[in-house]
Design goal:
Layout: E1 3-7, E2 13-15, E3 26-28, E4 31-32, E5 58-62, H1 65-73, E6 83-85, H2 96-99, H3 101-112, E7 116-120, H4 129-136, E8 141-146, H5 152-158, H6 165-176, E9 181-189, H7 197-210, E10 214-219, H8 224-237, H9 239-248, H10 256-273, H11 281-290
Parallel strand pairs: 1-5, 3-6, 6-7, 7-8, 8-9, 9-10
Antiparallel strand pairs: 2-3, 4-5
Helix pairs in contact: 1-3, 3-4, 6-7, 7-10, 8-9
Length: 301
């Protein structure tokens, strides 16, 4: 079991780097570290400044996150752009059941009518459905779930402590009935493991049934500590794929032919199921229809 370490944060919001893209201007992370232990997690680097190498085992809990958020949203420095909840962690990882930081965060967002986006691999977000619906009735909210495969034997090895894929689809179905927009993040697509036509089509079919507004695909990137963690997993749990995956990333970046083959399957599924990959379309529609007076300010549109 991971250790929970309570800390007090100096700030709640952190501006995203210029040019990073995405329908948001800053990140809010109620935790540091993540107990879901996804073997491809890109955010393992984020413990470096803490001089703590155990991203999965040491979870830092920002006990004053809602208080700091309220102060920062009350400041003139906040420009009103959507906030990304959990850019380098999952806001609804297991320790959230104990600490319940997110209900207070949602109440602060409601108070300030602050637009936001959130992506999770947990069904615990349904606990706060009523609060999120209330915020979505006031401003823009997007709820997404990352789902890489519907094969539980694969999912349990790649994402051992995250919710089953079926539970995440149930989250999307529930929020599709709310004022929030919804998306399925098919990221990362792992070559030779989850990039097959059967898996891609199954995810598009499930996304269609869940009523999502978009499905965002993305291939696996391997950098730094993530690379070591990932290949240790593949060697242990998917040895038949190891040589092919290693060869696909031997130069650091994914081989172009492997990437193009996967995206050809994605494009075919997009056409078959009629689901857009434009994850910014819901935000454009919302702000164009409801907040024309702020359109120039929200430059990400």
């Amino acid at each position: 079991m991971p250790s929970c370490i309570e800390i007090r944060c100096a700030s709640a919001l952190h501006k995203t780097p210029e040019g990073r893209g995405g329908p948001y201007g800053c990140d809010l992370n109620p935790y540091r570290g993540c107990a879901h232990r996804c073997q491809y997690c890109f955010a393992q680097y984020s413990h470096a400044y803490l001089e703590d190498g155990d991203y999965f085992g040491h979870i830092y809990v920002k006990t004053n996150i809602a208080e700091r958020l309220d102060r920062e949203l009350s400041s003139r420095a906040w420009d009103g752009r959507p906030i990304s909840l959990g850019g380098v962690t999952d806001s609804y990882q297991p320790c959230e059941a104990r600490y319940s930081l997110m209900p207070e965060v949602w109440r602060v967002l409601i108070k300030h009518k602050a637009p936001c986006v959130i992506s999770t691999k947990s069904a615990l977000i349904l606990r706060d459905l009523e609060l999120i619906e209330r915020l979505a009735s006031l401003t823009y909210v997007n709820v997404a779930c990352t789902i890489t495969t519907l094969d539980e034997s694969v999912r349990q090895k790649l994402e051992p402590h995250a919710a089953p894929s079926g539970a995440r689809l149930a989250v999307l179905s529930a929020f599709a009935k709310s004022p929030a927009s919804t998306g399925l993040h098919m990221m990362p697509i792992v070559p030779y493991l989850t990039d097959g036509e059967e898996n891609i089509n199954a995810l598009y079919c499930a996304a269609k049934e869940a009523g999502v507004d978009y499905l965002l695909p993305g291939m696996l990137n391997l950098k730094g500590k993530t690379r070591d963690t990932f290949f240790t997993c593949i060697d242990r749990d998917f040895p038949a794929c190891y040589r092919d995956i290693w060869a696909a990333y031997q130069n650091g970046r994914l081989d172009k032919a492997v990437r193009e083959r996967a995206y050809a399957r994605v494009r075919a599924a997009q056409t078959q199921y009629g689901i857009s990959a434009d994850f910014m379309a819901p935000s454009r529609r919302f702000f164009n229809n409801n907040h024309n007076e702020r359109a120039e300010q929200l430059t990400f549109l």
